[in-house]
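TASK: fixed-backbone design
INPUT:
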């Protein structure tokens, strides 16, 4: 029996209980170029679902998108009313309103009565906010209690600084097969390089008196958004685990790192959504906010804006992923969104990700009173098959931390390269 037949037999007996990439690895399903291909497994699964005899299967409600409208559709003999549909699908009517409903009957070739049921539901912003607030309140009750940290006073010769530890574009969930792309990458490797890099960058901070740690998270921290393993806008991704696993691992990783950072100085966590994980980063931000509810040394900025700002002394720092705005527009965006802070700051910078490489440029306004530096930060992320096939390789894999003098501005930055880490 060849691999395709083995895969089909497995799917018929077990359904799709693993990710497409996991199944491709298990049954060695390859594309025309000889690469392990989760996309080919996806096609096999779709054709298999269509070809299976519908008379042998229980009919279930389906979510249908048609002409920009989404509704739940059912055709069969078991669901005959709105109440049946709501019970079967599990819609919580405390948070969803029935927008429309219709039911009709028809006769099949055997003379049996069948029902066609269709309904649409609508959830208001108020309902979504209620769900979020209830989650946060419930999480606060279970948030761990942290003992206050007594920080040492500044010693002579050590300048007070804010220390920015910024590791964008980790892409937790991305799958890279070493034999195919030159190095392996999965959720466990992502967590290992992230935590090791933070520890090494934190060691450099001992040369200063750190008054605050700025810890941006996000910037495509996750490789995908939603159930279908795609970017927020729907581009398919090669993920190695289910989204629940990557989410839980990410939360555990962030708590582990923040717990270490807070022992050095108070931590400002800033959530920056990316184009791969725009929605999921809001959820993880809420989870971190609730976790540290009882910790005075950690504050979390999870405001819905994709652009965030923070100040320290004479410094104004802007943070965004960089996938939506034009880089040349960022200084004027900063001046428009934070005019008072912009006018007071002597040193202004934007730190962005998205491009997985290190680069900086200087922008000077028309009056030449001061300039804004835009830095594109490097990434520790590995390569997947698509980027390897397209030749998007060669960027230096690294992580950086920046030192900001309260009265003196930018002091410099430190870098940890991938070859310094145990992968």
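OUTPUT:
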């Amino acid at each position: 029996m060849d691999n395709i037949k083995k895969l089909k037999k497995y799917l018929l007996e077990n359904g799709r209980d693993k990710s497409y990439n996991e199944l491709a690895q298990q049954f060695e399903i390859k594309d025309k170029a000889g690469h392990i291909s989760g996309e080919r497994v996806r096609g096999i699964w779709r054709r298999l679902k269509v070809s299976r005899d519908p008379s042998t299967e229980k009919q279930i409600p389906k979510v249908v998108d048609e002409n920009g409208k989404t509704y739940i559709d059912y055709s069969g003999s078991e669901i005959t009313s709105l109440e049946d549909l709501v019970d079967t699908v599990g819609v919580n009517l405390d948070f969803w309103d029935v927008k429309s409903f219709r039911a009709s009957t028809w006769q099949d070739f055997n003379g049996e009565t069948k029902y066609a049921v269709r309904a649409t539901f609508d959830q208001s912003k108020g309902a979504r906010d209620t769900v979020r607030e209830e989650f946060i309140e419930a999480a606060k009750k279970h948030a761990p209690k942290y003992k206050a940290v007594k920080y040492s006073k500044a010693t002579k010769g050590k300048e007070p600084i804010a220390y920015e530890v910024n590791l964008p574009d980790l892409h937790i969930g991305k799958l890279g097969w070493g034999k195919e792309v030159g190095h392996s990458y999965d959720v466990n490797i992502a967590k290992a390089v992230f935590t090791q890099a933070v520890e090494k960058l934190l060691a450099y901070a001992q040369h200063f008196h750190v008054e605050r740690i700025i810890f941006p998270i996000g910037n495509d921290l996750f490789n995908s958004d939603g159930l279908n393993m795609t970017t927020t806008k729907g581009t398919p991704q090669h993920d190695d685990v289910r989204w629940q696993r990557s989410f839980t691992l990410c939360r555990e990783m962030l708590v582990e790192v923040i717990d270490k950072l807070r022992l050095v100085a108070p931590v400002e966590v800033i959530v920056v959504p990316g184009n791969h994980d725009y929605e999921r980063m809001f959820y993880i931000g809420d989870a971190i906010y609730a976790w540290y509810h009882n910790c005075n040394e950690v504050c979390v900025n999870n405001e819905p804006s994709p652009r965030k700002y923070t100040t320290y002394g004479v410094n104004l720092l802007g943070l965004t992923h960089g996938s939506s705005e034009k880089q040349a527009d960022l200084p004027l965006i900063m001046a428009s969104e934070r005019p008072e802070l912009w006018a007071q700051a002597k040193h202004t910078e934007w730190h962005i990700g998205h491009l997985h490489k290190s680069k900086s440029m200087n922008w000077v306004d028309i009056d030449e009173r001061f300039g804004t530096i835009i830095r594109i930060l490097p990434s520790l992320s590995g390569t997947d098959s698509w980027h390897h096939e397209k030749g998007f390789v060669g960027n230096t894999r690294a992580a950086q931390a920046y030192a900001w003098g309260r009265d003196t501005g930018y002091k410099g930055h430190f870098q940890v390269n991938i070859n310094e880490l145990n992968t």
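COMMENT: The mean pLDDT is 83.
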